[in-house]
Each structure stands twice: as structure tokens, then as C-alpha cells.
Amino acid sequence: MKSLMISIGNFLFRYRNQLFPVIIVGLFLSAAPKTEMFGSKQLENARDMVAWLVALSGLAFRAIVIGYAYIQRGGLNKKVYAKNLVTEGMFSVCRNPLYVGNVLIYSAVFLMHGNPVVTVVGILLFCFMYQCIVYAEEAFLEGKFAEGYKAYCSDVPRWLPRFSKFSQATEGMDFNFKRVIAKDYSTASAALITLLLAEVYEHVAGSVPTSDVQYVSILATLIVLTGIATAFISQLKKRGVFSDKKTV
């Protein structure tokens, strides 16, 4: 079973950027989003608020990880690869902190949709896919770093962060805010736009009453502003604004 999951993980690692959005769109279109929860509009609004909080928690978690120690997750030639074994910063709190943030963000997207079946299937499916990717990465890391990686695994949990070790893990390290912006602005932008689009979809699919037209217009404006901000940060990054100055 694990060898099959490793094969699936290697496939997902290569094609996740194309496959994950297709899966989300497919699940969203498979059932109409809920405009009420147990017949209550207030409960539905509370559920949306929880979704936003979960998404922001995921983004904040990723920011903390990247701010202290960054690990390249893009691989090499779209295959699992690691030049060094990164164990400092949040990587000594749990072994896959960036993926913890990702799972929180994807969970928020399906919570925002609200249909119980879509929410449960979506969250479980993305948890399974990330477990497959992690198995594939672990197989590579164990083959390359051998005993060093086994010792790391015996000391640091795979998924559940041990926050009690946070102070010790980041002792003497500086938080690099510019690196957070440079490395994660596109993820933050994609998450915000996806959540806003999910909210628009909910109101459009639910036969928008006239009073909601103004709200949908506000959501559309926020999507445009997020896109503009993303393009602006991208230009700043190309000009080297977020690059670390090297001492001579």
C-alpha cells in the first residue's frame, strides 16, 4: 500500500500545480454551495468566518516557517529533490510545516463551499494526496541522507507541530519578513482569490437577491485589487526589492 502511495505521491508532486485546481473546480461544480446552514443564514455566515480564520491560520503558519528557514519544495525538474536536509526553524517543530499550512488553506476552501459532501470529500482527498507526496519525499530523503534523516524522523513528528519546541527551535534566528513576501506572495494571493471566488459562486448559484448584488460587487472589487497587488509585488521582486543585501 505504501509503495503505491509513493508512486501516487511522485505523480502528484510533478503535476500538482495543474491537477489541484482542476480537482477543486470539479468538486465545486459537482454540487451547489450551501447558502444556509441548518436553515440559518447566521450559521452560514459563521461557517464562512471559520473558513477565513482557518485559511489565515494556514497562511500565517507558512509565513512563520518561511520567515525562519526556507526549504525549496519545487524539486528539481519537477521531481522530488533536496540539496540539504533542513532541520532548523519550524522544521524542528514538525517535518512538513509548509504542507500543514497548505492543508489548512485547502480545508478552508472546501469549508467556504459549505456542501457537506464536497467539504468532507475535498478535505479527505487533499489530506490523502499530501500524505502520498510526503511518503514520496520521505523515500527520497531516506535514500539520500540515510541515518541522518532517520534520526531526524525519530525526533520530529511528521504532521502535528510540537509548539512547545518553538522557542528552542528559533533561538538565535532572525525572522526574515522580506523573504516571506518574496517566497509566498503568490500563495497568499491564490488563496485569497480562491476564497473570494468561492463566496461569489455561493451567492450567484443561490439566485442572488437584489440586496446581495452590492455584496457580490464588493467581492469582485476585492478580487481585482488582490490581482493588482500581486502584480505590483511581482514587479518589486523582479527589481530585487526583497533581495537580501550581501555584506562585502
Plain-language structure description:
- With 248 residues, the chain is an all-alpha fold.
- It contains 7 helices and no strands.
- It has helices at 2-30, 41-68, 97-113, 116-155, 166-170, 177-205, 210-238.
- α2 runs antiparallel to α6 (177-205) and α3 (97-113) packs parallel to α6.
- It is globular.
- It starts with a helix and ends in a 10-residue tail after the last helix.
- The mean pLDDT is 88.
Percent range of helical residues: over 70%
Overall morphology: globular
- Which band does the percent of strand residues land in? under 5%
Number of beta strands: 0
Q: From N to C, what is the helix and strand string?
A: HHHHHHH
Task: Report low-confidence residues grouped into runs of 5 or more.
Answer: none
The overall pLDDT average reads 88
What is the tally of helical segments?
A: 7
Biggest pleated-sheet summary: none
| Termini separation | 53 Å
Radius of gyration: 20 Å
Features:
248 residues, mainly alpha, 7 helices
Briefly summarize what is shown.
By secondary structure, the chain is mostly helical. The chain has seven helices and no strands.
